[in-house]
Design goal:
The complex is a heterodimer of chains A (about 150) and B (about 425). Chain A has helices at about 5, 10-15, 65-75, 80-95, 125-135; strands spanning about 30-35, 40-50, 50-60, 145. By secondary structure, chain A is of the alpha+beta class. The longest helix of chain A is centred in the middle third of the chain and has 15 residues, at about 80-95. Helix content of chain B is about 40%, strand content about 15%. In chain B, a hairpin with a 4-residue loop joins strand 11 and strand 12 (about 275). In chain B, helix 4 crosses helix 11 (about 290-305) and helix 5 (about 105-120) runs parallel beside helix 6. Chain B is globular and about 70 Å long. Classes of the chains: A alpha+beta (about 150), B alpha/beta (about 425). The interface between A and B is medium-sized, with 20 and 19 residues.
Amino acid sequence: MDLKDLYRDVILDHNRSPRNFGRLDPADSSAAGHNPLCGDRLSITLRMDGEQVADLRFEGQGCAISVASASLMTEAVRGRSRSEIARLYEAVHALLTGHERVAGQDLGKLLALAGVAEYPARVKCASLSWHTLNAALEHVAVPVSTE
Amino acid sequence: MSATAATLRAGYEVDRVRAEFPILARSVNGKPLVYLDSAASAQRPLAVLRAVEHYETCLHSNVHRGVHALSQAATEAFEGARETVRRFINARSTREIVFVRGATEAINLVAQSYGRTQLGAGDEVLITRLEHHANIVPWQMICAATGARLRAAPVSASGELDLDAFAALLTARTRLVAVAHVSNALGTVLPVRDIVRLAHARGIPVLLDGAQAIAHETVDVRALDCDFYVFSGHKVYGPTGIGVLYGRESLLSAMPPWQGGGDMIRTVSIEESTYNDLPWKFEAGTPNMSGAVGLGAALEFVEGLGREAIAAHEGSLLALSTRRLAAIPGLTLIGTAANKAAVVSFTMQGVHPHDIGTILDSEGIAIRTGHHCAMPIMEYYGLAATARASFGCYNTTAEVEQLVAGVARVREVFGGP
């Protein structure tokens, strides 16, 4: 295992300078996520335009993997529809767990998370933001957990 | 005492201690294992592994049951381990030594048996802010069931108990004090003799959670004068799934059984049952015999090395690691009590503890990261997590230097400050 596979420059950059960090007010939906193992907490606020996520923000604290994953996710899903996001999530999940690529999905910068598959203990860190986004999209206000 | 242990006592030769722990010879991620997580679970020496193997291959049957040879052999091994525990903590009698699954089960036993009969609405149980969840949640549960109230004494920024505030929280309603002997998250050694003295002055019994102390301090329950003392086998180089509740005999005698079943009874009819004598009254069902035998061997191993010798060795590792880590820019030590066990908790500016743990792991260094099952003390420090290195009898000054080098590697990956 090479550490640089996990802590790629894109990851370190998004950890140091998270994009779309903060809170939308007003927002159409929000959700809070918690990873009890490492204490990571993040919340997502988003505004919808019909079926599309018009805008979103995240805030919270966590390890580099969870912060960078959340930051990369906000860039990847803005302007996308629920169904597009669902397919993207499927592809990200496959990437994180080391399964076969999902055909027809261009993951772009999200590919920087590929190294996580080599670190099973860190998959939850990278997927917390996606679980939280799904909860927000379902208008679930209760905290979600990756445990 | 084994011949090896007797030889070791002459002078503390850490290389010879390490040779007793086969797992320390393995590598992790292509690097020699540097095991700095003994506060989570200590490794087992050959003496323990062999004692368990001998029990399983030569002695095993059910205890206290049959007249046949193996049942008697198993009973002797199991009860022999109980005597070893009694000697190790200087209890008056083996009637005061109850085998349980671990410190957690021991505290639950006291909460459910002693707490259920002694606590009522408005009564209070007093703990501290730095307790492990195992010494918080069982009290919350029994307080919810009885209407009693759980109170927690504050600690200072250095992680030391505020003894005056503790004393002020002892009231006419306090029915039990339950505190850690040593904090798992910070390493603080609590002033347990003062705590016992203050509580006993008001006639309040004291439970000490010795999970983190048993491998590092000389524990003498008569000198401590505590009423209950609990610990887990796997923190003191023994197996998992075995632990000990020490209880003052007068208290244990008056307490009702917790779990019902075989072995804890004298007679059973459909209408009623009469209970067994101490300590078996609290040991329902077939116990963990091989675990008890392994624990006995672990305690003999520690006696062989000498508890003072281990404490002195760990003390030097604590002093060195504290000095070396404190000198690193952007690194903050969490828990700087004057009296500490060999635990170093820390944070690094701009790096989450989980990332520290992953990077150290890539260097073969095992530390704990997270809230250490002590969320209230983490909250006090405004932290979600820390990185924690903890030392045992087998760690070396070279490993402290490897930890320091690993921390430098973390800085290299993350940059700054």
